[in-house]
Design brief:
The chain is α+β, with helices and mostly antiparallel strands. It is 38% helix and 29% strand.
Length: 345
């Protein structure tokens, strides 16, 4: 007992030793729960159930180490001696959750994504065609596929051509983007650089004609909207995260014996959106038992749904979806309510 008390008493500084363990353990736990929450909300969207997000607002871990040693001796008419020791170690993790609701829900899921981060993604070498097909609803009145809770509308026949031309011109280093902060907001400009060869020149000419812009200009204002007011600007209407989630969820296959899923598929087919000609952005498997190895897996409506850990395309698209959530406006931390703080010890 004396040896243990002295050993415990010697470990007075326990804080630094916990950083390596706590930091990585909490990062792994939060990352895994974030993936599962995102997949669950995609399934809820697929089944017309309300998506619910719970943000981890803060993680606070408190440690306490106490030790005490008592020694006593007495020789007043008799022999008395006593020895005692006490040690106590306490770990008090406290996690604060912030539900996404009310005005915060509207800002994060219903409000269209800002254009500046979308252009930033293009400049960060993310696939241009993927970004335009996922994040953009229309460009100068040319509509992308429109997804609703049930059904939707197919894209304009020239939208795929527009996206392909934009990709080819950008790949030839023919497009630059500039953002300038002003008191009124961020002014965005798309600049078409002079083509370096005949193929790039033909692609740029087709792109300008398809956009119905002034072919003699090379710099155009980018505004948020469906239609441009003149030939000097390009109107881009971005999607909201709820629209993007609906688009992702539309390609999720439901179990063949799931009658609710069968009715959902029939409702999609009746509403005019032809999903048979488009590849699902993610492939979600389903089954009655929990998968052995999965990138993300959740149990929903008596079935297991998961993304295969070997499915590189689905994993890449799923990660891209999670990156898009960082572009949504969350508002000020102090204005959020309610906040749930849960001691986990």
């Amino acid at each position: 007992m004396v040896v243990i008390v002295f050993l415990v008493g010697g470990c007075t500084a326990i804080g630094p030793a916990t950083i390596d363990r706590d930091r990585f353990d909490y990062v792994s736990a939060i990352s895994e729960s974030w993936k599962r929450q995102t997949l669950l909300n995609l399934l809820k969207t697929r089944y017309l159930d309300a998506p619910v997000f719970m943000d981890v607002a803060s993680v606070i871990n408190q440690y306490a180490l106490e030790s005490e040693i008592e020694l006593g001796f007495a020789w007043n008419g008799g022999q008395t001696q006593s020895i005692g020791g006490r040690g106590m170690y306490t770990d008090r993790p406290t996690i604060t959750y912030s539900p996404l609701m009310g005005e915060k829900f509207a800002r994060s899921l219903v409000k269209p994504l800002p254009l500046a981060p979308i252009l930033l993604l293009i400049q960060s070498e993310y696939p241009t065609d993927t970004i335009l097909r996922i994040c953009i609803q229309s460009i100068n009145g040319i509509d992308n596929s429109r997804y609703r809770s049930v059904g939707g509308n197919n894209a304009d026949p020239v939208f795929d051509k527009l996206v392909d031309l934009f990709r080819r011109v950008y790949a030839a280093d023919g497009i630059a983007m500039r953002a300038k902060n002003t008191e009124a907001g961020v002014n965005l400009t798309i600049i078409f650089r002079p083509p370096t060869h005949a193929t790039a020149e033909a692609d740029l000419r087709q792109l300008k004609r398809l956009l119905a812009v002034d072919t003699h200009l090379n710099a155009f204002r980018v505004v948020h909207g469906k239609f441009a007011l003149d030939a000097n600007e390009i109107a881009v209407l971005s999607r909201s995260m709820l629209q993007i989630m609906t688009a992702f969820a539309s390609g999720i296959e439901t179990p063949p014996e799931d009658m609710a899923g069968l009715y959902m598929d029939e409702a999609w087919q009746r509403k005019g959106l032809d999903k048979t000609h488009s590849r699902p952005w993610i492939h979600v498997k389903n089954g009655a038992s929990k998968p052995d190895a999965a990138f993300a897996a959740v149990h929903y409506r008596d079935y297991w749904f998961w993304i295969d850990d070997r499915d590189i395309h689905s994993k890449s698209m799923f990660n891209f979806l999670m990156i898009l959530f960082s572009f949504t406006e969350r508002g000020k931390q102090e204005a959020e309510a309610p906040v749930i703080t849960v001691p986990t010890n």
